[in-house]
Predict the structure.
Amino acid sequence: MTSLLQFIPNILAMPAVPVSQVVQSETLGWASFILWLPLISLALCGLCAVCKVKTKAPAIITTICLGTSFVLTVLLWQGYEQPVIIHLFDWLQVHWAEGSFVANFALYIDSLTLLWMLFVTGLGTLISLYASEYMEHDVGKGYTRFFAGVSVFLFAMTCLVMGDNLLLLYLGWEGVGFASYWLIGYFYQKPSAVAAAKKAFIVNRIGDVGLALAIYLIWSTFGTVQYDGIATALASHQYETSFGDWTVHAIPYLLMIAAFGKSAQLPLYVWLPDAMEGPTPVSALIHAATMVTAGVYLIIRTYPLFMLDSHALETVAWVGGLTAFFAATIGMAQYDIKRIMAYSTISQLGYMFLGLGVLSSFGAAYHVFTHAFFKAVLFLTCGAIMHGFAGQLDLRRLSGLRKMKGWKIVSYTMLVGCLALAGFPLTSGFFSKDVILAEAFVTQGAGFKFLGWLAIFTAGLTAYYTFRVWFRVCCGPVQYEPGDELHGGDETSFHPHAPRFAINFVLVVIALGAILAALPYFMPNETDGLHGGWIAEMVNDSPASAGVPGAVVDSHAVHDSGHTGDSGDETHHGDILGMDPHKAMYFISAVVGFIGIAFALYFHLFRRKAADTLRSKLLSRRTTRWLPTAMEHKWYVDEIYIALIRSPLWILGKLFSMIDRYIIDGALVNGISSLPRAAAKWFSPLHNGAVQSYAVSMIGGAILIVLLMLFMPEIVEFLQSISQQGGEHTIASLGGAQ
Amino acid sequence: MVDRLWFLIPELILLSGAVVCAIGGLSNAAAIRRRVGFIASIFLIAACVSIPFVYSQIHVVDSSSLYPWLGKYVKFTVGIIGILLVMTSGGLMDRKYEHAIASGKDRFNALRTSAGEYHALLLLSITGVMLLCEANDLIWLFLALELVSLPTYVMVAMSRWSRVGQEAAMKYFFLGAVSAALMLYGFALMYGATGTFVLSDMMTAFAEQRVDGGIAIFGQIGLLLALVGLCYKIAAAPMHMYAPDVYQGAASAVTAFLAFVPKAAGMIAIIIILSIVGWENGLPSIVEMTLWVVAVLTMLLGNIGALLQTSTKRMLGYSSIAHSGYMLIGIIAGPPLGLVAVMVYLVIYGATNTAAFATLASLSRDGRSIDSLDDIAGLHNRSPLAATAFSISCGSLLGIPPLFGFWGKLMLFAAGIAAGQLSLVIIAAVSSAISAWYYLRLIGLSLLSPNTPRSESVTISLRWPLIAAIISAIIAIGGPLVLKSLSSEARQAINQPE
């Protein structure tokens, strides 16, 4: 339980990036175009909307702008030497005697920012290219609106990642939330899409409140919202404790709430599956690859703050581990392939939070990086299928895609994604997941060992449900039914239309990315003895390294030295079955993955009937009936939330509305508003329009004032006598002013 | 003496303008007759242009006034708003008669025209406000105030040749006489208490008396009566009762004038009179208490009174009463913040209130001016521009951020809080919230509601008032950009270095 506390002294002494290294850059002004290009794209999309453009121009504009943004990011990364601040303009600056509130429009560029920006802008470009074909049936209708939304999203995401202070991050945070609302509700004629958009927005709001409060507390505790200022204050223990100690303990939990809301963790995950109502490119870009990782980014960026409370990271680990398992069980029993992917996203995000919790910020960030690619490719293949089969997403109604003409690329890129997601040996997902799993066994913390085994079990479930999709949809005999978006022709004459160049090209590129994402793990880095290659250096050269053992030196050396002298129980944590945890994990997770795939192979390719028989067997027995039912109904979480939160609020709302109508409006407002009328009637003889009565009231008023003044001493005496009866003997003499 | 005359150059320009207008209005040439408004505007512009030269550092150093820079701020802003008011009056006078002459149905008779006189009176009244700034004794102060008021009585009377207009004018005149009598009586008592009319001497006399244990009772009663009399000019309780009747009775253009020019004069006069007593050691408690009660009553009576009105002009009349109450907060708060806020608020209020009345002035039904709330319903269907200008002005009067009115209220309330008048500011905020009810109703009626059978026949008949409304609305939106320089000018006007 006290495991994290032991790090605290040296963490506080060690800001992630020594502040003296952070320099204001004068020459990197061009980097701001990474930020402005999406905004320019938005303006041009707006222009297209005004001119009622009926071509694919908005897609071309957006793709070019985002592509340029990506190129600039790559250039910035190539020229990167040390963390810099690029000051764009003064935004909010309030100074007063005791302090100040400064939030400039400035970019904070360190390797973590660059890592995030590389995949955000890169995937943004590719997915907008994909969407140019995917959304073509809407050209001239919602096409411009869609790409404007994507531009807004990219702008906000860039603010979120590149901002040099928490307020700019908050701007981006709200901005991506808004863009997400905009794009989930893209098909606004569909009631379910509107409901999903609202749900996403409202659930996110809970997290946003957490972030707002956290920013306020950070500002009141450290006197600044700028990252370098916070790091300095942490390093020198200069923080305001006039509110008491509780603020430093509250900050990590509030940040956590924000992160759980945006990254769809327990208990705030419910919006993400519904968010699949949006167009698939949106699901791929926003709800799988980039926006939902903002929570991970937030925690990594403020990682030193999480060391302030000894249980904060343990909470993160537990929430992440449980979410990973919980979402995987739901994903196993769904039939809608996009929803399966949504639950798998929640599950994988859970892994990332587990990684953060077990002091493996590098593992979390690396998993974000690999996940961005393989989940994007999975969603995009789902999108291609949806596009070709008129909205069909039910895995029971699709089969044998692999053997159909024109669907080869989709099938095999999907396989690449599935392999990575299932953690098949030597794929990118395999390495990134193993870092997290291994660290769960290495780091000491309450129940981390249990979480480790749970995560391994979840890895097996992941492999199963992933390949359930692939074996069902891509293998087996060729069978298909069109979905409910069938336009023209009847069901019998339906021919799926295979994807064309843009979709196939993007799929291939991102699938290659998903394969190559394993490479950074092996690319040599310049830090001596740092495990994890190039990408570890990118992550560790940032606040993420705070408190992480082995961030500077070889991790195993620290683990080993840390474990010598510990009790036998403690040493057991340091390795798995007597082996180096990383190497052991390679074998364990590979075996677990194979088992999962094998189950999927049996139930969903060789003997598809067996799955149904198993299900009906479970259903027929009273003792086991609950399991498949509950899983198919997503453990009834939505229903529970409705019963526990929505219904009481609704009843409360009704109650307040009744109070408002009958007591406030009825008795108070109408009652009070009848007072002036009564008064008006009372005074109406005075206000009768006759000039004499006006004059009388004027002079009367004047006389009243003069009389009041003349008898002022008496009045004051009278008032004093009243107040003295009340026990106040020391009232100041009001008459003295005379 | 030459020095004082130098500062009166803007007034002299306006006086000659008044003469030119009065004569030009009688001209046989229709081209000149119809353009007295332009002539008046040109003289106002000339006066405004002269002000920076008149109030140069070299000359102001020699000035013996209480507030040597006050004239620069007040004359300039009143001059600018005066131009808007002249535009608002465009087409008000002699419209039908000129039509008849132009179409040959009638012949020109100098006795039957009134445009020239109207503009001459308008310029004279503005001259009065300007003269007020140069007052350094009570006689001058009183004469200047009367120069503001007397022309307005005539303007109300001549603006509408109907029974309502005449009744309004008579009421306004009689009650104005009563208030002037009260004020003059107050001045006499102040003279009795100090033995002088010269403001700076009175100031020393009062200061000595306060050191010796309080201002003489004569002086206190005099101060109170003077303040009560001035309350008439700013339409504050208990002297507010005329305002709804008169504002409703006069033509909208004249109402716009009444709601700004006498009010500005009254506020400046109150500032001058109170500065004789001085804020430095706090106002005498009786004066502060009276002002407090007057402010509270004015805000509440104005805003609550407006709630139940069915006449737009009456509603805006009550609202302008309430705005006097807000400005009194600044007066109570005193220098520097409070007075700066009052100075700035006067300008903001003048511009936005003019927009509201100018919109009304531009509308008519069958050549008759409109009045009821019903008439502005669905205004956006007939003139989106007018509806927008009207709504912006109402929004600014209500104080919706980021419109100009919001910043004005913010300054007033902030000054009040800084001066420790928290309860007063809370009352002001509450009454400001009450005012939202009727301002939003006006906005809703003009911007959102559909036409009513009654409002369908309402048309935009006059162009110049609409232009004035649009300019004022632009000021209401763009004003915050110049707020900083405006308030630094106001700071200079009340002798507070930067």
